[in-house]
Amino acid sequence: MLLPFTPARSARRRRLLQVALLMCACAPAFGLEKVAVQLKWRHQFQFAGYYAAQDKGYYRDEGLEVTLLDALPDGDPVRSVLSGRAQYGTGNSSLLVYRARGEPVVVLATIFQHSAAALFVRRTPDGKALPLRNARMMLASGDDELQAYLLRQGVKPADLKLLPHSRRVDDLVEGKVDAMSGYITEVPYLLERAGARYDVLSPRAAGIDFYGDNLFTTEYELREHPERARAMRAATLRGWRYAMEHPEEIVDLIRARYPQGASREHLMYEARQTAKLMEQPLVEPGYSNPARWQAIANTYITLGMLPRSVPLEQFLYREQVPDSRWPLVAAGMLAALLGAAAIWRVRSARPGPLPAAVAPPAPAAPVAERALDAACEGVWEWHPQSDEVRLSPRVGELLGYGAGGFAPADRDAWLQHVHPDDRMHLVHEMSRIGSDPVDDTLLVHECRMRCRDGGFRWTVLRGRVTERSGALPLLASGTIGPVSDRAVAERERLSGVLEAMPGGILIADRAGRVKQVNRAAAACFGYQPGDMAGLSMELLVPEVMRSAPGLPRELFSRPNLPGRVLTARRADGAHFPAMVHLAPIEMAGQGLSVVSVRDMTQRQRTEQALHVSSERYRLIVQTATEGIWMLEAGDRTSFVNPTMARMLGYEPDEMLGRPMSDFLDEDSVAQLTRQNQRRRPGEAEQGDARFYRKDGSSMWGWCRRRRSTPTTARTRARWR
């Protein structure tokens, strides 16, 4: 039955439609799952990725409403998560210890590739280092790497006067304690501002390199809410990527949310140090290496902090990747059914034999052979288990042989026809595809092959493993073709350019394997130029990435890598610092990376010597019995040592930026002005001057002044 149309019914329908649309729009908000993250410390840049994920809506995009819980006094984030107060937390490598005790904690993602924990030890007023034994020390709970460091240095807990951690840097500055634990991301900033003299003792210097902040949860959360855990991890890592790319924005966000916290300068300092600990931009946020976790466990075990066996299988989160084969299987079955239906329809519509005009298709093999011949390509086959090699007659023709004249029986015989400078690279490539049980990447390699007349011809090999028995490669096959004269000329020009460069240059593919290297780079690494072709660029990556499969490939597939000092490894196994730059190029349709390498050993030694010299000069100036005063252009005070400030009754900071004339009587100002006008840079003058102290009293001092070069316009004065 049809109801008649009326305006009232139309208005009612519009209202129902509006309500329905409103409910649809609000559905995502109503469906947000509420979770809490327990932070291990107060709000600061240490948790920048979580703030970014909140502010940018990354958590909401994943269907989550996340609350960040500030650390409680003497609180333990692990206990907070285990008790159910929070579903997720931030913790350090001590999560291993909890796991060994039977606590069901699981690491979802590693944020800091290196722990920020360090030991800060004050120096005596005369600049001497304090011994650790019998030191008054504040250690926080969970400072496992520092305890391991002390044990490795032969310092036991009984050798220390351990005090509760006050979290106040002033206690170290004021001498209430001799040493305290803290984060390298902020404590140096505070100590420098306080003018303290101190030493930093890092566990990494003793070979104890633990992971830093980790996002963790429990087995219960993973079992009951696996999708929520996946979403939490994905949104958090997305937030960290944003925070590392926009640190100034996140610093301003932290300041706006928590105005009672650190200053902007303080947070920017923390951001710069955090990027170093996260190995940005080299290492993707969230990455961790099971082998390195095992090394951390071994350190705990060696120092008696863990039992002998700590299984890691359930400790490290592995995202469950859905099986992507069933859509392909379903598509194949559907295609087969559709094909069968089409054939049935054709046959039912046209019974009887096919007309003579419809010829059957040619067999696939002859068609492929004709196509390869037309492209001047030969075919090769290699059986890795027997080393047997088979080459098509076309390969011999490319090298000037007659039919059957070029038929090496095995790989070694084949390699004898490869140019010596290209041979090692091809050996590495074939060994890779012949031994890796899962690597199905395409082999693409250019090399020179000896022709029948004794000359060499550039060829390009392409292929991959085509048959396996389980994980065992049985057959690799592909094609061999000539490289065009233009490509050969481009390669020769490139080689000439590389050799003309004074610095070390390598060319690597996106899988991180060396394609070409100049003599300067080979000498830098202690190789002969021909021996480096085919080597993995893992020799350039930091320790944290060397044992991680796939990471060199990820590193060298990045579009750019700005200059950065990494740890490199020579042919004899020695390590050295290297400045590395990466830039992408395209050659013959292949994506490559140009790697510039510079040995920084001598430069670091020079910088270290300058630092030691500068530190010695600073100590001499700070402890001098004479007053020392430095002026910048405009007669502004840039530095006074404590003795000078003490003579006039000021703190050094009170005198900075003020002109010297503020502290002199008029006659002394006039005298010093006349001397300054007639004195040339480098010359020294001396004389008496009358100063006014902070309390209004005056004093006479003997002054010796020397003016630096006009470019620095700096004046140094000594007073007695």
From TrEMBL:
GO terms for molecular function: metal ion binding; transferase activity. The keyword Disulfide bond does not apply. Keywords: Iron, Metal-binding, Pyridoxal phosphate, Signal, Thiamine biosynthesis, Transferase. GO terms for biological process: regulation of DNA-templated transcription; thiamine biosynthetic process. Residues 1-31 form the signal peptide. It catalyses: N(6)-(pyridoxal phosphate)-L-lysyl-[4-amino-5-hydroxymethyl-2-methylpyrimidine phosphate synthase] + L-histidyl-[4-amino-5-hydroxymethyl-2-methylpyrimidine phosphate synthase] + 2 Fe(3+) + 4 H2O = L-lysyl-[4-amino-5-hydroxymethyl-2-methylpyrimidine phosphate synthase] + (2S)-2-amino-5-hydroxy-4-oxopentanoyl-[4-amino-5-hydroxymethyl-2-methylpyrimidine phosphate synthase] + 4-amino-2-methyl-5-(phosphooxymethyl)pyrimidine + 3-oxopropanoate + 2 Fe(2+) + 2 H(+). Residues 490-543, 613-683 form the PAS domain. Pathway: Cofactor biosynthesis; thiamine diphosphate biosynthesis. SMART domains: PAC, PAS. PROSITE patterns: PAS. Responsible for the formation of the pyrimidine heterocycle in the thiamine biosynthesis pathway. Catalyzes the formation of hydroxymethylpyrimidine phosphate (HMP-P) from histidine and pyridoxal phosphate (PLP). The protein uses PLP and the active site histidine to form HMP-P, generating an inactive enzyme. The enzyme can only undergo a single turnover, which suggests it is a suicide enzyme. Homodimer. Belongs to the NMT1/THI5 family. This is Thiamine pyrimidine synthase. It comes from Pseudoduganella lutea.
